[in-house]
Amino acid sequence: MFPNSINRRITQTQQRLQNGEFMSNIKISTKNLDLYYGENHALKNINMNIKAGAITAFIGPSGCGKSTFLKTLNRMNDLVDNVKITGEVKIDGEDIYADGVDTNVLRRRIGMVFQKPNPFPMSIYDNIAYGPRVHGIKSKAKLDRIVEESLIGAAVFDEVKDRLHKSALSLSGGQQQRICIARAIAVHPEVILMDEPTSALDPVSTLKIEELMNTLKEKYTVAIVTHNMQQATRISDYTAFFLVGEMVEYAPTEELFSRPVDKRTEDYITGRFG
Question: What is the rounded end-to-end Cα distance, in angstroms, of the chain?
Answer without folding.
Answer: 21
